[in-house]
Design goal:
Among the domains are: about 1-30; about 30-55 and about 100-150, no CATH class. The protein contains 4 helices and 5 strands. The chain has helices at about 1-15, 50-55, 65-70, 140-150; strands spanning about 65, 95, 100-105, 110-115, 125-130. Strands 3-4-5 form a 3-stranded antiparallel beta sheet. Strands 1-2 form a two-stranded parallel ribbon. It starts with a helix and ends in an 8-residue tail after the last helix.
């Protein structure tokens, strides 16, 4: 009886903390109105290339680029999870125009994901831009959240 009760409680906890899309929320991850207060539910070690992603943006001039240019870049067949940034990862780019197709917060690491396309076509190829929860990105994340809210879109975890 005691074992059944424990298993039942653990099952209920799991159901309460994982949504229909598999994203954790509720008990394990609050839905902060302020994205800067998002609390990752997974340890840093679970985040792919965590050390490479959580570094300051270089203080260099941004290069103008379009989504189509990014999509034309060759992809590495394998990237070592512990590899430091190299090549284009050391550069800064600016997209003057793109279409936001989807925006979400990954509750596991609190990264904000923006799916961007060159055209408004919902089936257009996309690039994903991530903004980590680091304090350096706080104002940009709050600004994006505010701008999306003006269009009736709630961006939270």
């Amino acid at each position: 009886m005691k074992k059944t009760l424990v298993v039942g409680c653990l099952t209920l906890l799991a159901l309460l903390s994982v949504g229909c899309n598999g994203t954790a929320y509720g008990i394990l991850q609050p839905n902060p109105e302020d994205l800067c207060k998002c609390l990752p539910i997974e340890p840093d070690i679970a985040d792919f290339r965590h050390l490479a992603k959580h570094v300051p943006i270089p203080n260099i001039a941004a290069q103008e680029i379009g989504v189509d240019s990014i999509l034309s870049w060759t992809q590495d067949a394998f990237v070592d999870p512990g590899a430091p940034r190299t090549g284009r990862e050391l550069q800064v780019f600016h997209l003057a125009a793109a279409f936001l197709q989807e925006a979400s917060v990954n509750a596991a690491d609190c990264d904000v994901h923006f799916d961007l396309s060159q055209t408004s076509d919902k089936n257009a190829a996309r690039v994903i831009v991530e903004t980590p929860v680091d304090s350096e990105f706080c104002s940009a994340r709050q600004n994006a959240q505010s701008q999306l809210a003006k269009h009736g879109f709630k961006l939270d975890s």
